[in-house]
Amino acid sequence: MGRHPRRLVLPRLRGARQARLRAAHLGGVGVRIEVDRDRCEGLGMCEAMAHEFFEVDDDEVMHVLDETPDERHRGQVHAAVQACPVLALTLTG
């Protein structure tokens, strides 16, 4: 009981702001997920918010499963990007 868990496992959450996000009309330009690998600590908040696009492996390394998600997923991905506690994620486009 005195030990701290090595990795916190979070449930898959839905962002409270997700329903309020508006998709931008970019005329064919897609959304792109960018990662600052120097900042990423593999905490898994992005995976908890959008497991279809982010995955943290057993070594606590985060992988982007789809760097260019469809515009219809913009709200979900945006919520995951904003959930990053170390600001390692950026959504462009």
Q: In short, what is this structure?
A:
The protein has 93 residues and is α+β, with helices and mostly antiparallel strands. 15% of the residues lie in helices and 15% in strands.
General description of the model:
Helix content is 15%, strand content 15%. By secondary structure, the chain is α+β, with helices and mostly antiparallel strands. The chain has a domain at 31-92: Alpha-Beta Plaits. The strands form two sheets. It has a two-stranded antiparallel sheet. A hairpin with a 5-residue loop joins β2 (54-56) and β3 (62-64). The chain is globular. The model is unreliable at 14-28 (pLDDT under 50).
Give me the strand/helix succession.
Answer: EHEEHE
Main structural class: alpha+beta
CATH level-1 class of the domain at 31-92: Alpha Beta
Main beta sheet: strand number and arrangement?
2 strands, antiparallel
The end-to-end span amounts to 46 Å
